[in-house]
Automatic annotation (TrEMBL):
Residues 187-229 form the B box-type domain. Pfam families: ANCHR-like_BBOX (PF22586), COS (PF18568), zf-B_box (PF00643), zf-RING_UBOX (PF13445). The gene is Trim36. One of its GO terms (biological process) is spindle organization. Residues 336-393 form the COS domain. Residues 399-492 form the Fibronectin type-III domain. It is found in: Cytoplasm, Cytoskeleton. This is TRI36 ligase.
Amino acid sequence: KVAIKGIERELICPACKELFTHPLILPCQHNVCHKCVKEILFAFEDSFADGGSESSNQSSPRIRISASSMDRIDRINRSGIKRNSLTPRSTLFPCPGCQRDIDLGERGINGLFRNFTLETIVERYRQAARAAIAIMCDFCKPPPQESTKSCLDCSASYCNECFKIHHPWGTVKAQHEYVGPTTNFRPKILMCPEHEMERVNMYCEICRRPVCHLCKLGGGHANHRVTTMSTAYKTLKEKLSKDIEYLISKESQVKAHITQLDLLLKETECNSERAKQEASHSFEKLYHVLEEKKSAALRAIETSKNIRLEKLQTQVEEYQGLLENNGLVGYAQEVLKETDPSCFVQTAKQLHVRIQKATESLKSFRPAAETTFEDFVVDTAKQEDILSDLSFHSNGLEIPEINEEQSRMYNKALISWECPGKTDSADLYVLEYHKLNKEEESVTWQKTEVCGKSKVLSDLDDDSSYAFRVRGYKGSICSPWSREVILRTPPAPVFSFLFDDKCGYNNEHLQLNPRRTSVESRAGFSLLLGSERLQVGCYTTLDYIIGDTGIAKGKHFWAFRVEAYSYLVKVGVVPSNKIQKLFHNTHDVTSPRYEQDSGHDSGSEDAFFDSSQPCTLVTLGMKKFFIPATPAAPKDPASRILPLPSCLGICLDCDRGRVGFYDAGRMKCLYECEVDCSGIMYPAFALMGGAAVHLEEAVTAKYREYHDDI
């Protein structure tokens, strides 16, 4: 038998750090106490209500919300964008075991299974730990007697006498199942948490959880591969038994490894002490050099001070001699009392020279020494930078390089890096960044430690450039800094929306993906049939689609990608009062297929088109970006055609009435114009022929990684 007291580490809740109480199984297969799950969700909701402030996370000392979860709360609160009631809601739960945000689905806690097996093991552990503590009968009159058995059907404990009274022979209760004294009462039949009246009788191999027949018929597991519960039980039990038997058969090998690890522990202790002594010796050398420099600097300052004081003191004494009846003046006054001309002339000649010098010094007074010690200021800025960078450098660690193609600057900044040799020799990475500001003379780097090769940052300012650099650490050894990379944030807060599949959506010509983040226009029979009825080649049909969320005020930015094979795509904004006109006016006269030599003046055609269109759009297609023909635009048509960026962005400023079109990869404005923002503005897209548009996904921290793993 396995020693119960030796498995305590497996029975501790990762949230409260105590033995599990009614543990629930999360979708990530970690277990958390039912009470802890509720406390974490309450704290999560309070953080949403308080705008993600740190003060809202201090009510429960047992529970802490991860930094990634707080970042997401702050982003959602800042956006202030609400979807309609038809959008399905999900419950995010920050798992304390894997530090990821898990989607519990619409049912939340009610959709989680209770881990009765773990609960039984915890109860056995508790009984082994408190063998001397008896479980008392629940029905005895005071004083209660020690119980001898527990009824699983009644969920109560009884002594022998009370059990006979409440379970009389020949009654239905006499058939109840009973076990030894326990406080852990588990149901005989495991019921489905989604369909509470149905028992689980199948096992979903995709989600790795028990399900009922309703889940398979029309629930969330309809298209999943399932097996019978008995088959899953037999298969999993055989696998687990074989794995356990294998581990037990390798007991001698495990003990040998433990002995080797014990030796490594002692060796690590010895080597660490030796490394400490060497490091201390190195720093003592630095201390010695600094002490010598300090003593020399203080001696120089002291010497200069004494010389200056001596000069100033001498000057003070000289000026004191110019006072009446004192010093030089007093001596001259006594000489004036001499009546013998020859003796007076003999003394007065030298005295007169001294008096003249004193008179000149009064006219041009200047201290004999400077009082400031500006020449003795020690500039240690460079030395401080060197000392702050002091670490155990090693040539064995490769210098990481920031991958600008994989890094993204959107609602958050995703910074990714890799090692040239494609090896992950570092245990930890340190990412530093700072905002580029010409006014600031000194640069202050912000630092964050990362275990992987990417980091999501959410504290960056909009419309700003940042410099990034990264280095790797293996223990106390670090690599040199990578090359600095400069990236720019979007010009405004990111606006989130989906394609609207209700208003004006033409499902015959356009195809949306299930998440409504991509739209595709396919050149098929509908376009050929429509072209057959047309006799003038300049008129072709555009299929419009708008966003499901509007903008009433403020400045917003969104980005999207246009497939390279797209023939014609128009992007921009449309006011709410012109949406109907937009879907009833789907003819385009400025497509790449338009015949330029129509016999009319091109400038007048452009002016007619601009004034007749209900929305502000620019044309994309054939891997090109077409700048609209305006008085400010170049007259040469070739200069108005730019290469199509891999990612495009639109910045709408409702307060100023302007819309800009950006290369979202470099955050560079390609074209900007005025727009009427009197109504609610919606993102607008138009496609013709073979074309596709994909909305840029928001940068999120960690919880998408979980879904990708599943």
